[in-house]
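dumping this here so i dont lose it
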């Protein structure tokens, strides 16, 4: 059975790239371009994996991670921050907010799916 991934990303090019790579790897994609829509879609669809950009227009990805990890999603849901924030402490901040993993942008199209699956399999 295909796993469903919710991508919360406001940048059209990043959304296209992530969606394309994941669809090629046989995942079903749900798209949200802001945090409020992302939270709503997460609760309506219960995706197995949620990829969250940290820098979003309405609320940051840390807040979304926190809300998702405390709002009744199945414990098996894997939340991964995908961000260009790569300063010291950013990964720890994402994990503290409720993310299970952290991937830096720009993503490498050749390794992204394997990196994501490594986080999923590690949970």
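and the seq i came up w/
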């Amino acid at each position: 059975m295909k796993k469903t991934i919710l991508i919360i990303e406001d940048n059209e090019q990043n959304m296209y790239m992530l969606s394309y790579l994941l669809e090629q790897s046989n995942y079903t994609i749900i798209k949200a371009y802001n945090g409020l829509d992302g939270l709503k879609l997460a609760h309506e669809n219960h995706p197995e994996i949620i990829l969250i950009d940290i820098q979003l227009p309405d609320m940051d990805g840390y807040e979304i991670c926190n809300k998702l990890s405390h709002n009744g999603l199945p414990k098996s849901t894997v939340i991964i921050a995908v961000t260009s924030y790569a300063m010291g402490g950013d990964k720890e901040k994402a994990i503290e907010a409720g993310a299970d993993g952290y991937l830096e942008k720009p993503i490498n199209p050749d390794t992204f799916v394997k990196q994501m699956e490594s986080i999923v399999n590690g949970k």
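The helical segments are 12-24, 35-45, 61-69, 90-97, 112-122.
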